[in-house]
Prior knowledge:
This protein has helices spanning 3-8, 36-44, 58-71, 82-91, 108-117, 134-139, 162-171, 184-187, 221-235, 241-252, 254-272, 292-298, 315-324, 371-383; strands at residues 75-79, 99-103, 124-128, 144-150, 175-179, 197-201, 215-219, 278-282, 305-310, 329-330, 340-343, 361-365. By secondary structure, the chain is α/β, with parallel strands linked by helices.
Amino acid sequence: MDLSYIINELGENRESYLNAVAPPVFQTGNFACKTVADMRHALQHETEVAFYTRGKNPTVVMLEQKIAALEGTEAAIAFGSGMAAVSAAVLSRVKAGDHIVCIKKPYTWANSLMLKFLPRFGVEVTMVDGTDAENFRRATQNNTVLYYLESPNSFTFELQDIRAVTAIAREHSVCTVIDNSFASPLFQNPAQMGVDLVIHSATKYIGGHSDAMGGIVCGSREAIHRIFKSEYMTLGAVLSPHEAWLLIRGLRTLPVRMERVAQTTRQVVAYLQQRKEVAEILWPFLPSHPQYELAKAQMRNNTGQFTVRLNTTDLKVIERFCDSLRHFLMAASWGGHESLIFPVAATVDPNSFSATGPFNLVRFYIGLEDADYLIKDLEQAFAQMYP
């Protein structure tokens, strides 16, 4: 389907709601039935019929249809946060005694799910260096049921060769799950490379305005139906109709936002490459990056995240640089209109600080501001490092 059609028209039966240009928010918990037969039908077809908003809500369904179409999957299901989506996707495929192979250094709370939560219920997890696809084969056991990917991963942005990993998964009848939030559904479509379940933190690029939270799982109708009938309805981490409406609003401008972010990020990275205060830029779209060719093969364009390793081991100097930035907000999430930093130094206890480890890494997210505006801010902050 055409991108403009998906974003602006798919699922929007305007004649059914007075031809309003913006879709309505079906802000209701219940949908009434006229007869016992009607209620019986609704109960028997709760995966398709609006009966209770914890099940199907028309505003939420509209968002799900659009994201599934953008990812090229048969169906999608929306959750209240990205981690709710991650958890439901993984839990839908495992039981006690099963084994998962997961990349090292996934998103913090995905890491917690793998190493703290799942082992409590008898699920074993092996973490591997995902930059070598053969590591998945080496780690696979007789009870392996799932490979968990995040390409690029959080903070240091290593890639996995998605086609190679899914080929290994098929050999062993293993389900593949990937967090595709970094690339957005516009710049990477893992389902087309063989991935079974594709996840987005809709809080990020899909929403795009830093005012809504949500998560999406995309996959086959059978896989999404399986999640709906179990983890979705049982755990109840559903997306509210109003949040769905905000995310649909965000989708309207997704193409133009992504192009703007991509262009500005290239300009900011080019500036940072010239600074002596920068020891390294972790970004797979640099020609010097060891996975540059893979990045070009799997993604259609760069997005707005990269990490800088500052050329200092002095914690006070790192803090001075970060604290001096005026137009980069210091915050945890990303994907909105505003540019952000997340310094690893914020996770360090100054009283027990040791000058080892990645404490001099600062993750950047580039938003919708002018490149010159951001570069001037970086320039004045660099000047404060050694006043």
